[in-house]
Amino acid sequence: MHLILFLVFAGFCLGGAINLLIQSHPINSALSLIVVMVSLAVLYLLLGAEFLFVAQIIVYAGAIMVLFTFVVMLLNAGREAHTMGSRAARSLGFPAVAAILAVIATVILHAQGLGVARLSDGITSTEELSTVLFTKLLLPFEVTSVLILIAILGAVALARHDDTDPQGNSERMGK
Amino acid sequence: MSSFLSQEVPLSWYLLLSAALFSLGVVGFLIKRNLITVFMSIELMLNGVNLSFVTFAHQWHAVKGQIFVFFVMMVAAAEAAVGLAIIIAVFRARATLAVDRIDLMKL
Amino acid sequence: MNAHLYLWLIPALPFAGFLINGILGRRLPKWVVTTIALAAPLAAFGVVLNASLGVFGFIPAASSLPNVETCPLPWISAGILHINFSFVLDQLSLVMLLVVTGVGFLIHIYSVGYMGDDKGYARYFSYLNLFLFFMTVLVLAGNALVMFIGWEGVGLASYLLIGFWFQKKSAADAGKKAFIVNRIGDFGFLIGMFLLVANFGTLTFTEIAIKLGQDPGWNGGVVTVIALCLMLGAAGKSAQLPLYIWLPDAMEGPTPVSALIHAATMVTAGVYMVARTHVLFDHSPFALSVVAIIGAATAIFAATIALVQNDIKRVLAYSTISQLGYMFLGCGVAAYSAAIFHLMTHAFFKALLFMAAGSVIHAIGGEQDLRKMGGLRKKLPVTFWTMTAAVLAIAGFFPFAGFFSKDAILYAAFLQGTNGKILWFVGVLTAMLTSFYMFRLWYLTFLGESRSPEVHPHESPWSMRGPLVILALLSIGGGWIGMERFGSFLAPSVGLLPTEAGNARLEIILSIVAVLVALEGWLIADKLYRRKPARPAQWAAALPGGYKLLAGKYFVDELYSAAVVKPLLGFSKFVLEWVVDFVILGGAAWLLGGIATFTGAILQRWQSGNLRSYAAWLAAGAAAVLLFLLVPWATVLANLSAIHLGMAGH
After folding, report:
1. Does the beta carbon of C619 lie under 8 angstroms from any beta carbon of chain A?
2. Domain boundaries of chain B, sorted by first residue
3. Which of A12, A39, A52, A109 best probes binding to B when mutated, by most B CB atoms within 10 angstroms?
4. Which of B13, B61, C151, C183 has the most neighbouring CB atoms within 10 Å?
5. First vs last C-alpha separation in chain C
């Protein structure tokens, strides 16, 4: 069961990822990425991380990808134009990626001491997680909230129209 | 039923999947021409790494691995917000989302 | 037991004079400069006299020769080579020192009058004292390296003094020419010194003599090479063929300089050096014959040129070269003391000739061309009579000084077999030519009617006339000491005269021949320049080619210029302007610039602004780091080489 579940959702992951690469319209890529996110959430659950399973869906699939979709809509991004490629990317990048993948794969395959996962391994409860989170790791947690606050401010500041911009004024006036 | 429950999946497969997702993210970064899609590839990379964290957390029964994934998610959210705001600002200035056409630091 | 003779004072006093006049001279009043400048050589002469009194027996001999003084501080001590600053006073250096300091002092007095109006008065005397310092070092040197110091130093002083009026381009050029040609000779001297060190392990003259005497195997071979190298140095310094070209040009300097340096002392340094190292020459008959041939050839060569020169100083310059040839002829037949005897008498009458010529030039306002002189006999009596004494002396008339010394040389030459007789003949021919051109000069300058009547000549001041008189007396009586006494005095240092093969009757016959020949020269000059003054022009017109050849000094300067100087200049211009400037420096600059541009062009592509290439490089870097860290390179390489070897084995 575990094996089947793993294979199915790992397949969804890989399929979604490859589809992201193949599609030319960004909205299709965004939808593929959502597929990947959800599949990963299930994989987290299979590994016993129930909180992360939910958090992944809520935060990643539900917030981040929605944000992406909004931006795609806002900017009216169309199909990708065929611009000049980068020779460096083709001749240097792909071998590099292949090398990275090969090295990591070799290391993983030769690693000793890696165990197995079973459905019967149990789930790390949210209670466990929050106990550690709010006692030993309280400071990073609070800092993260500050970080999010800064991100909000930054996003607002960056994305709004410039008030002194005459073009912006005229646009609003025009509307 | 118990045989189903006690079926084993070697953790190395999870790790291999993580490595594959990461590599696909890098490839996407390299070949995609739309700025937003490139950003999505970055998110893909992050997710791959998250998977390997959770795998190791399972291996050693360390909750901290999962907490780290939680933090990565938070930071990724913040990063996505700011990054997309930047993309909007760049789009306003350059009127294009093609990665190859945005090659000047000055807006 | 040798009493301390304070030999070191002899060079030190002129050196002090050089320093004081050189540094402070311009600020001191003229009489102070004069006093210091004259006191130095006088004091040096005094020290020499003090040393000689004991030697000649005028006072009880407090010291015996050779008297050696060595500086207690060692100079060079490298392996087997030990060289010290040592001064040696023996018979040879004593005679030389008397000449150098005595005649030098007289010329210093003369210069007071001659250079009295010159702006560089103090500078002149400081250079003159510097010269005296180096010359005394050269003479007193106990080993070849100290002598080389003096050798180079007199060359330097000569350059400074020839180019004394440096604003005149010809003077500056003449100074340079003298120094450079001297350097060519010095190269020979240096090689000779190196060979001496290599073969004898020492440069001290006495030690070399001892070593040569010990081993009968030292004959020819290396000794010949050393002797010839030293002869090259002497030829440069003493203006022999082929390095004589600097001496006529050196007449650009003030006349007292010509008198002191280019007549009496510096140019004789070569002869002195050969006499000093005579043991080397004695062991190499080939070198001796080379010396004799060079001397004789130079003598007649220069004499022929002097026949047609019109500048009074040039005539005297070529005459000097010719007389130096006589001295080398004397050395070449191993009659070293005869050569030194001639050196001494030549110093007297040649210095006198130059100084008298200077007096004439001074009197008629700077004119040096013989064709514009004449009739000065009544106007400049002292100059006339002293110069007459000198002319008679150089022509070799009995009983003037030149007769004894020249005859000694010719007699020794005659005794040397068939080659010697040929050399004797050349010497006699040269004597006739010498007499001819000297009397030509005499007639043209003093006798007849003045050819430039607008000039009103006035006699020189007594500071100039005094030394003329003293030297005239020496020219008359300087030879009366006689060759036998002189030779036996010098024998401990230069060996005996090789006159065993001759006899007194032969000597008298040869002397009479020489006097007759000189008389013949005088008569020819008399006919051409007094009785029939139109003849010289007719003879010149009859042999235009020959006249042009002689007047053009055989075009040796032009030959050297075309064969040596121009190629060297062209080559150095090529090297400097093309190789160094254009290729090396320009090429280096171009190369550096090119490298910078090229590297920039390559690296520029990194900063493309292209996001994707940045990403590619990032990935490549990450891959590289991962590979480097995670791959066990040691085992990989070992396996690879094992595979390679394994495959190679098959």
Report:
1. yes
2. 2-101
3. A52
4. C151
5. 93
Q: Nearest Cα to C295, choosing from C239, C345, C377, C375?
A: C239
Are C612 and A86 inside 8 Å of each other by CB? yes
* Cα A42 to Cα A63: distance, rounded to the nearest angstrom: 18
3-state helix, strand, coil in chain C (%, to 5): 75, 5, 20
Structure token digits, residue A63: 């917030």
Of chain A, the end-to-end C-alpha distance in Å amounts to: 59
Rounded to 5°, angle at Cα C193 from C187 and C195? 105
Backbone angles phi, psi at C10, to 5 degrees: -60, -45
Could you tell me which residues come within 8 angstroms of residue C58 by beta carbon, excluding any fewer than 6 positions away?
Answer: none
Given CB atoms, is C613 within the 8 Å cutoff of chain A?
yes
pLDDT at C115: 86
Burial class (CB in 10 A: 0-12, 13-18, 19+), A50: middle
Best B38, B41, B97, B100 residue to mutate vs chain C (most C CBs within 10 Å): B100
Decide: helix, strand or coil at residue C141.
Answer: strand
Inter-helix orientation angle C121-140/C144-162, to 10° = 160
The verdict on whether omega for the bond into residue C66 sits within 30 degrees of 0, i.e. cis, is yes
What subunits make at least 3 CB pairs under 8 angstroms with C? A, B
**Cβ-contact C331, C238 below 8 angstroms:** no
Is residue C490 within 8 Å of residue C95, measured between CB atoms?
yes
3-state secondary structure C577-619: HHHHHHHHHHHHHHHHHHHHHHHHHHHHHHHCCCHHHHHHHHH
Tokens of C280: 């080397």
Q: Does A148 touch chain C (CB under 8 A)?
A: no
Give domain B2-101's CATH architecture: Orthogonal Bundle (1.10)
User: Residue C432: phi, psi to the nearest 5?
Assistant: -65, -45
Tell the residue number behind the tokens 């611009």, with chain if given.
A83
Percent residues over pLDDT 70 in chain C: 95
pLDDT single digits (tens) A102-153: 999 988 988 887 888 777 777 888 898 999 999 999 999 999 999 999 999 9
Q: What is the mean pLDDT of residues A45-69?
A: 93
Query: B23 pLDDT band (50/70/90 cuts)?
Result: very high
Q: Is the pTM of this model over 0.80?
A: no
Q: What is the pLDDT of residues C146-171, one digit of tens each?
A: 999 999 999 999 999 999 998 889 89
Provide the mean pLDDT of chain A: 85
Sign of CA dihedral A17, A19, A24, A27: negative
Q: H or E stretch including C84?
A: strand C81-89
- In sequence order, the 6+-apart residues with CB closer than 8 A to the CB of C299 are C322, C323, C325, C326, C329, C426, C427, C430
**b or e along C107-141 (b: 16 or more beta carbons within 10 Å of the residue's beta carbon)?**
bbbbbbbbbeeeebbbbbbbbbbbbbbbbbbbbbb
Predicted local confidence at residue A83, as pLDDT: 59
> CA A107, CA C129: separation in Å to the nearest integer?
92
pLDDT at C291: 92
Average pLDDT, rounded, for chain C: 85
Report the residue of chain A nearest B101, measured CA to CA.
A83
pLDDT tens digits along C542-595? 777 777 778 777 888 888 888 888 888 888 888 888 888 888 888 899 999 999
- Determine the Cα–Cα distance for residues C622 and C616; give it in Å rounded to an integer: 10
Residue C74's φ and ψ, nearest 5 degrees, are: -70, 155
ipTM associated with this complex: 0.89
Q: Which residue numbers in chain C have pLDDT < 50?
A: 1-2
The tokens for C176 are 């340079």
